[in-house]
């Protein structure tokens, strides 16, 4: 029995060694070119221009390294033009000394012309490339997508990190490739963050005129095509409806002396519920948020509970109006950009199945009831404005 046990252990050890033969498709890390951002444009000749952003590890100083990084940027942008996105990427690959790897790509920027003609080809590529991250954020450039790659990163090392932080910090709408692919199943209506671009003199660049990129409103897509825009307030209303509004400043005028009082939003949550009554479909949107008063120019007594209740009502009414204006803007475009149809499908699948073919027409006339509850949790120790003393 002891002999058989010994033979069994030897056999198991031999099998284990056979399983340690390595990976046939392994690529050394030094042979990889890691894509961090993808910029896609449509040209006048119906060709595509694809630009990929890559970090340059040999120019990134870490720890005690003494490499001189002042000789150039720590990243590179490589662009090619072709009749399709896949062919353009193949051309880029042919000119690189390393193999393209998509695992670190978190940002996709499409130019305005590309958005206006439809982002279907971009979604097609993303859905078929097995290593492409579906959680990559998609933004729209007001000009060419490639223009965004020229931004000067000040606090970050790479341009893509600047854009990605906008979405992760909920400064703007963080629509992902996955969101767009899911929206395709119900018509392709979606909303994505719009960027803005310009040139300013930067102290960090020794006063040189440099490219600056920031956030703006939002791009409204109907069936994957850009059909309109939301302004900044309407874009922020979208963040409220998603429950993603955090660390944001809100202001209103005091009802007594019309001086400004500013509030800092600490947290928020939202829920959307559809209701079906016969042929009538309507939605309720409930939003709750906690605010702190961070400044006041008014003589309003902020230690009086009745005054605080009055400010809470004013903040709630203000938010109700902003959310309804954002929804009405998408209704005017007949684009269910905030995906109320998907919420209806989740709660009432039979109702959705019956109405999905004419949903855009129905959405245009849908009723919405917004119930906002803003609570002022902290007012500070001063009951009146110190500036007016």
TrEMBL record:
Q: What is its main location?
A: membrane
Q: Where is the Spore germination protein N-terminal domain?
A: 26-196
Q: Which GO terms describe its biological process?
A: spore germination
Q: Name one GO cellular component term.
A: membrane
Record's keyword terms, sorted = Germination, Lipoprotein, Membrane, Palmitate, Signal
How is the protein disposed in the membrane?
A: Lipid-anchor
Question: Which residue intervals define the domain Spore germination GerAC-like C-terminal in the entry?
Answer: 216-380
A UniProt-annotated Pfam family: Spore_GerAC
- Tell whether Lipoprotein is among the UniProt keywords: yes
Q: Where in the cell is it found?
A: Membrane
Give the matching PANTHER family: SPORE GERMINATION PROTEIN B3 (PTHR35789)
What family does the database annotate?
A: Belongs to the GerABKC lipoprotein family.
What protein name is recorded for this chain? Ger(X)C family spore germination protein
Q: Which organism is it from?
A: Paenibacillus whitsoniae
